[in-house]
Amino acid sequence: MGDNRIAVVVADDDPAVREALADLIDSHPDLELVGLAINHEQAVRAAVDHRPQVVIMDVHMPRGDAPGSVRAIRDQVPEARVVALSAHGERETVLNMLAVGASGYLVKGTPAEEILEAIIRAARDQFSMSAELLADCAEPLRRAERASWRFEDLVGNRLEDSYLELLGHAPCGVLVVGPRGRIEYANAHVRQMFGYGSAELRDKRLRDLVPERYRTASEQLIGRVFTTPSAMSGRRRDGSEFPAQFSGGHLQGRQPRGVVFIADLSQLRAAESRFRQLIESSPDAMLIVDTGGRIQAANHRTEALFGYDRDHLIGRAVEALLPDQPLTVSLREWDDSLEEPVGHSMELVGRRSDAKQFPADVSISPLRTEEGLLTVLTIRDITEVQRAQFVLERSLELLEVTDRDRQALLSHLVHAQEAERGRIAADIHDDTIQVITAASLRLQQLRRRLRDPDEQRVMDKLDETLKLSLSRLRQLIFDLRPSSLEHGCLAGALRGLLEQIRTETGVTYRLEDRLTAHPPAETMALIYRTAQEALVNVRKHAHAKTVHVQLLGLDDGCLVRIVDDGEGYNPLEVESRPGHLGLSLIQERAQIAGGWCRIESEPGSGTTVEFWVPLGTPPDAPLAAPDSPHSPEGDPQP
């Protein structure tokens, strides 16, 4: 090994990512690959055998856990520094890694140059973190004064210097503003964005970089712990303006200083054009709708599904295709919200040009443009799906005479459903994300060999597409398996679901957790899915302002009570409509665990859903062993 080269060990259980990282390190003149590992146990052994300066390690690998591996490496090889690399970016995981001594945390999909820079910085005992994690991991700063602890306790006394170094490598413009409101620091992105040199920016104010109409708004960004991003315009040195997004924060250190993040939105129109091409090539019907509910664009699949020419649809209200449903209410709430909107899906009823109706699965996604907030609707006819669901329900009714077999079948179905969710999430993480990460690394290696600017721009666009795919896949993993539920926190998983409903609909909530016993994993999953079905009904149909969720211990079991102040309904009338099987499914899921369910509602009086399940494995319908069914006996009654 050369005297000045940095020795590196790569640990990743995915062969494609591991080989791509190895090639990336070998291609750098200042780095030398000295070892490879495919699990946590091998990562510690390789660090002890080769005594590298840096170990770059996947967080989620078999045969051990990441925090334990970091501790073992730091204890046995004190000179080694660990840089975490993972497809997951949950704040809890990141902070746990930093707490045990990791020198950095990168999300898979990070550009190759940033990975190389993080390795070199770690060898210098400097800290690195992916920019997309920075705002989320800085969240504890907002609670610092209330909770009487400081973020420095997590990353050491080097927080201020490390934070400044991170800001310098951020992919957006960053300004640090001193106590007197003067600019003390500007990174390269800001200098390029506004056309100033470092000396010219020093001692300017933020208001000098925006047009007159935005000066008051710009001053309000400075000095706060965290602000929501605001769309404004920047003013370059030559007086020209460009669309930009500004957000402010607070840099905690020896003296109070503000930090302002600036993103150039000039490329937004090009992105919208590419997005419209994507919409046109979709196999599903897709619409672009404004906040007033007016259709702005439609693809050819919309014409085939609804029987209208797209020219006839432009400018019409979306209610013409999805009548008498609370869709535009959600769109207007997005427009008024100060927070970034989050997409979701709904089961609605579509109406074709011949007035025939069909059940539809509608995915609703926000699209922020220069003209304002638009919405992309993806619509799929689920007639066959509901027909299959109906046939399944009728088949289950026939099995009531053999309740023992029915209990075992339903228990197996729930077990299989959760297992399938976990399998899909694991497959996405262990296969798709890994392959895309490897492809991204290979692509970035290829880009470095190109000299033609046009070819480099094509590679940049392809790299952006891969990063977008990684981001969406990580969100899909979270949707399939909520991290709180996976870590055994039922209340945390329900709080995350309630927070999502609050963001989407404005419904406020109160969660009361008085459950002292810890449910088995499978029972906890069933409780969560059952409560999720009830809360989806609140979101879709109740038009409620508040919802109260209680977790109570009762008779060696868990009683879940969900009360909303919505408009209520007539159960006989609602349950007879197509597409309203949700309440029946709630009752079925409660019975799977040997419990019961009670639903009370009437027009104008809100709705109360209660269900109880035993916390232990019921002797008559063991959830953990669906291959050994028994008959239910003596179920508790409400």
Automatic annotation (TrEMBL):
Region Disordered, annotated ranges: 614-638
Occurrences of domain PAS (ranges): 159-229, 271-324
InterPro entries for the chain: CheY-like_superfamily, HATPase_C_sf, HATPase_dom, NreC/VraR/RcsB-like_REC, PAS, PAS-assoc_C, PAS-like_dom_sf, Sensor_HK_TwoCompSys
SMART domains: HATPase_c (SM00387), PAS (SM00091), REC (SM00448)
Residues covered by the Response regulatory domain: 7-123
Region forming the signal peptide: none
Subcellular location(s) per record: Cell membrane
Membrane topology of this protein: Multi-pass membrane protein
SUPFAM superfamilies: ATPase domain of HSP90 chaperone/DNA topoisomerase II/histidine kinase, CheY-like, PYP-like sensor domain (PAS domain)
Protein's UniProt keywords contain Lyase: no
Superkingdom of origin organism: Bacteria
Keywords assigned by UniProt, alphabetized: Cell membrane, Kinase, Membrane, Phosphoprotein, Transferase, Transmembrane, Transmembrane helix, Two-component regulatory system
A Pfam family that the UniProt record links to this protein: HisKA_3
rRNA-binding keyword on record: no
Segments forming domain PAC: 344-394
Modified residues (4-aspartylphosphate): 58
Protein name according to UniProt: PAS domain S-box protein
Origin organism lineage: Bacteria, Bacillati, Actinomycetota, Actinomycetes, Kitasatosporales
